[in-house]
Write a structure and sequence with these properties.
Length: 426
């Protein structure tokens, strides 16, 4: 059985630098683009920020779903406009799959002329027949932004601009749409001068994509936006990182402005926010991890300020002790009191070959007051299982996506075997 790289279905999307292209990327969201880290244990108390040891709470079970083989070998993003309709995107021999409530089917994605390959890293749907996926196309000496549109029957390429000048890398990593004629996509690029990487934002008006320059923090060297969520054409929140610190920006329909992210004594704004979902202009949830501690991170926006929302971290026996790390890669909220976040945690410092499975799926649920860990399955044959995206069409129906690595060699080794992963909760 081959599982969709990272799709999990419940019945109830920091990169210090661009990763090299032409080789398999790192594990899951780490490919966007953080080196594998083996850092401090999760069960710790840091002044001003409680980091709790988490235990899985009783809940309806998650199960693994069948998907086509060969298919999408790494699933980066998923969007479900209805309980019986989802679109998942990533890379592999195919780059997109669709769920009709019963089965997953491959949906061919066109490759731009001259591109050696593509990866779709994020997707947003406003209806079952209107989805927008973003990512990049790989070329001999650089990567270029890529946008594809789904009309319910087929995918087509939408022309998207590339900043930074000829030969410079540019990638889109997240997208949010309020209608078929209004979308905002974010990512990063290599400018000809200035920061090593800079934040990228583009806006779709129903006829063309245009760059709308995101804010670059003064003096920053590595800036990237990972995720975006829009509640209207004049209200979008984008999150990411700047030189190892959390980053949040707001789009008001005309321009971007910086927001101050939550700070904790002894930690400050250290970390990466990988994903955000807003249920209204005054309610957003963002998730990621704290750099240097190897623990999950969540922050809430109340329309005025960001605040830390304490998240649990799995506690596992490691050898050597303290070798476990945890991260949340994606979040989806059906309401202000119902969010699901997904990611992974490691044992043995996440070192491949030191255990039968050195990375495990992680799912956490928010009930409006607290986060709790939900049990999630891992394939016995996988060396590492990671979740990278999640979408909830209701409080009781979610789909999460990710990847299984099925070889004990380091996961960023060229050609490391991968397979799609799909899980469902009922």
């Amino acid at each position: 059985m081959v599982r969709l790289a990272g799709v999990v279905r419940l019945e109830s999307c920091a990169r210090p630098a661009l990763s090299p292209r032409g080789t398999e990327k790192g594990w899951g969201r780490m490919s966007k683009h953080r080196p594998w880290r083996a850092i401090a244990a999760a069960a710790t108390l840091v002044t001003g920020l409680t980091i709790s040891a988490g235990t899985a709470t009783a809940a309806s079970g998650w199960t693994i779903q069948n998907t086509p083989s060969p298919g999408v070998s790494t699933v980066d993003g998923v969007a479900c406009p209805a309980a019986n309709a989802c679109v998942a995107v990533g890379d592999g021999s195919s780059q997109a799959e669709a769920w009709n409530g019963t089965t997953w089917t491959l949906e061919p994605v066109p490759i731009p002329a001259g591109a050696g390959g593509i990866e779709l890293t994020g997707v947003a749907c406003t209806s079952v027949d209107a989805c927008t996926a973003v990512g990049y196309s790989a070329r001999p000496f650089n990567t270029s932004t890529l946008v594809e549109a789904w009309n319910g029957t087929s995918w087509s390429i939408q022309s998207s601009p590339n900043p930074g000048g000829p030969g410079n890398d540019a990638e889109l990593t997240g997208v949010s749409c309020t209608s078929a004629s209004s979308c905002v996509a974010v990512g990063f690029y290599h400018p000809a001068v200035g920061p090593a990487t800079d934040a990228l934002a583009e806006v779709w008006d129903g006829s063309s994509w245009k760059i709308r320059q995101a804010v670059t923090p003064s003096g920053a060297t590595y800036v990237a936006l990972d995720g975006v969520s829009c509640t209207s054409t004049s209200n979008c929140i984008a999150v990411g990182s700047q030189d190892g610190s959390t980053l949040a920006e707001r789009w008001d329909g005309k321009s971007w402005s910086m927001q101050s992210t939550a700070s904790a004594p002894g930690i400050g704004n250290d970390g990466t926010l990988s994903s955000v979902d807003c249920t209204s202009a005054n309610n957003c949830m963002a998730v990621g991890d704290v750099n240097g501690l190897g623990i999950t991170l969540a922050e809430t926006w109340n329309g005025t300020s960001w605040a830390i929302s304490p998240t649990p971290n799995p506690v596992v026996a490691t050898n050597p002790p303290g070798g476990s790390t945890s991260t949340l890669n994606s979040v989806s909220c059906a309401s202000a009191s119902s969010c699901t976040a997904v990611g992974y945690y490691t044992s043995n410092g996440g070192n491949p070959g030191t255990s039968s499975n050195s990375a495990f799926t992680l799912i956490e649920a928010w009930n409006g007051a607290a986060w709790t860990i939900q049990p999630s399955p891992n394939a016995a044959s996988a060396e590492a299982s990671l979740l990278q995206g999640v979408s909830c069409s209701s409080a009781s129906t979610c789909t999460a996506v990710g990847v299984d690595y099925t070889d004990p060699s380091p996961p960023n080794t060229p050609g490391s075997p991968r397979s799609g992963l799909v899980e469902s909760e009922s």
